[in-house]
Design goal:
This protein has 247 residues and is of the alpha/beta class. The chain contains 8 helices and 10 strands. The chain has 2 domains: 108 residues, no CATH class; 124 residues, Glycogen Phosphorylase B (Rossmann fold). It has a 6-stranded parallel sheet with strand order 7-6-5-8-9-10, covered by helices on one side.
Length: 247
């Protein structure tokens, strides 16, 4: 818990709460902001938004602050400042906090600002690569597992296009060069994220980037298990079981 009490709240007014202060990438910091808004709705606090100051991976803080659409508030009178809302982040059942009302609040903010033009997004798979490889097994999912996931998707949704968003080159995904599978590699952050938000079917990675997109997505979400638990309406993927059943 990273809690910092800034001011004693004035009697008879709601506590004012903000999320600020990590060097992580966009997905991690946006998910932290989402957790703060969800926590405030649960606790009946007022959320005061602090803009992104620094984002990892060379991302543009000002542009991405505008992208998520949350109005920047006056943080001088904030009572509580945290890196993230741990009760939400660590919840066994985060849907207790991410109610449909909260998700609609986040969606309304998100869609209040301009979004990139993207091609139609039917099935989108996020594969985390870049700073995650086979040397980091807690965040890495192999191409073999993704072959099984693609087979499952093709059986469940025949004749529908699958788009993979990731980093790297086509040589990194040779096993996934299957008919009906397209690749969008190294796209701009906003383009990749918005494609996931708008997907008719979204397959998340072990990543806050696609987890945050899944919170905004109104359609079908397949969730890849990692340390942030799924929302109630998501379908849990067991990649290793899928791979075994495909052999």
């Amino acid at each position: 818990m990273h809690l910092r009490i800034l001011n004693l709240p004035t009697r008879n007014r709601r506590k004012r709460y903000t999320i600020k202060g990590t060097p992580d990438g966009f997905g991690s910091q946006y998910q932290a902001v989402m957790s703060g808004i969800a926590y405030c709705e649960f606790m009946k606090y007022d959320y005061i938004h602090t803009p992104f100051v620094f984002l990892g991976h060379g991302e543009n803080p000002a542009a991405l602050t505008n992208f998520i659409g949350i109005p920047v508030g006056n943080t001088r009178d904030v009572d509580i400042s945290e890196f993230r809302a741990d009760p939400v982040h660590n919840s066994e059942r985060p849907s207790v906090y991410y109610t449909e009302n909260v998700r609609n609040i986040l969606r309304n903010y998100y869609f209040s600002t301009a979004k990139p033009t993207i091609p139609p997004t039917d099935i989108v798979i996020h594969i985390r690569r870049g700073d995650v490889g086979a040397h980091a097994p807690d965040r890495f999912t192999s191409n073999t597992d993704y072959v099984a996931i693609i087979q499952m998707l093709k059986a469940t949704y025949p004749n529908r296009t699958i788009t993979i968003h990731s980093e790297g080159t086509l040589d990194d995904f040779k096993e996934l060069a299957i008919e009906g599978v397209d690749f969008r590699l190294n796209d701009a952050v906003m383009t990749s994220f918005h494609s996931m938000v708008m997907a008719n079917v979204l397959v998340t990675a072990k990543s806050s980037f696609s987890y945050a997109a899944a919170i905004l997505n109104r359609n079908k979400v397949y969730y890849m298990p990692f340390w942030h638990n799924p929302l109630d309406d998501w379908t849990i993927l067991r990649a290793c079981s899928l791979a075994q059943s495909a052999t």
